[in-house]
Amino acid sequence: MRAYLDFEKPVAELEAKIAELHALSEGADPAAISDDVGRLEAKAQQALKALYATLTPWQKTMVARHPERPHFRDLVAGLIEDFTPLAGDRAFGEDEAIAAGFGRFRGRAVCVIGQEKGFDTESRIKHNFGMARPEGYRKAVRIMDMAEKFSLPVLTLVDTAGAYPGIGAEERGQAEAIARSTDRQLSLGVPSISVIIGEGGSGGAVAIATANTVLMLEHAIYSVISPEGAASIIWRDSTKASDAATNMKITAQDLLRFGVIDGIIAEPAGGAHRDPQAAIQETGNAIEKAFGRLDGLSPEALRQARAEKFLAIGRKL
């Protein structure tokens, strides 16, 4: 069954009626209910479009976290051919919160790095809900080193609530690992593109999102801290997460206006989880255009453009 968000209740009720009509018509003439079904489907689609045209920042946060939203593995399966995953940081161990490897994107050899949250209880635990430890970021640095050595562009897919805050991660140098990953991506002499596909949380996201071009899916979020975390700090009340989300300006539309990101990728009506394949295709088209704009630039020009991009953030308000 489809998972509905709280604000999608009107659509859920209409689609439940449609499903009920289909169930009642089993074995009967489909034409007998076609008019009723068509009318309800049109009404549900209209309601869905109206809802998603006026989402609040907190509602967008819920959409970005939707369990059926396309994850790293879905985009790789839909966009990358001959993907070969690589593991380990060659220092401590493997961290499955960050996946990385090489493959071909529409005929172009690329390096792909991203967070994987998992899709069921077992895989979420395996991937630590997409929250990487230091070895994950050190793996990302190792893979970026290889990409530059072989002159391969880097594509990163960002989807994390943040870096893992556990004691072990801190003991192994979490902040240093994030800083080195951020620095390595900034210093790449090959084209780099980052896409925020769900949540872009804090330094855990920035560590692999300091690219020449940063794109966001329409209903993704990108912030220095989660709305719940900000509410707990500012108001000492996590139930004020909705207020925090509004004031933090975490939506793609706000971040494009502030110059933090470079473009927004449209999602199907009702969000990417409604039609994952369409969302993945649209994401692929945006990535292809972004790579096309970077083709032919020298390593120094790429580094310079990347540096200027991030230094300019906050100066155009």
Give me the secondary-structure topology.
Elements: H1 9-24, H2 31-53, H3 57-64, H4 72-79, E1 80-86, E2 98-105, E3 108-115, H5 121-126, H6 134-149, E4 154-160, H7 167-171, H8 174-186, E5 192-201, H9 202-206, E6 213-217, E7 221-223, H10 227-234, H11 241-248, H12 252-257, E8 263-265, H13 276-294, H14 299-311
Parallel strand pairs: 3-4, 4-5, 5-6, 5-7, 6-8
Antiparallel strand pairs: 1-2, 2-3
Span between N and C termini?
A: 45 Å
Low-confidence stretches: none
Strand content: 15-25%
Q: Structural class of the helices, strands and pairings?
A: alpha/beta
Structure annotation, total helices: 14
Give me the Rg, rounded: 21 Å
Can you summarize the main beta sheet? Answer: 8 strands, mixed
Oligomeric assembly: single chain
Helicity range = 40-55%
Number of DSSP-assigned strands? 8
Query: What integer is the average pLDDT?
Result: 92
Order of helices and strands: HHHHEEEHHEHHEHEEHHHEHH
Q: Characterize the overall form.
A: globular
Outline the structure in words.
It is built from 14 helices and 8 strands. It is an alpha/beta fold and 317 residues long. A hairpin with a 2-residue loop joins β2 and β3. The N and C termini lie far apart (45 Å). The model has no long low-confidence stretch (mean pLDDT 92).
Features:
single chain; 317 residues; alpha/beta; 8 strands; 49% helix
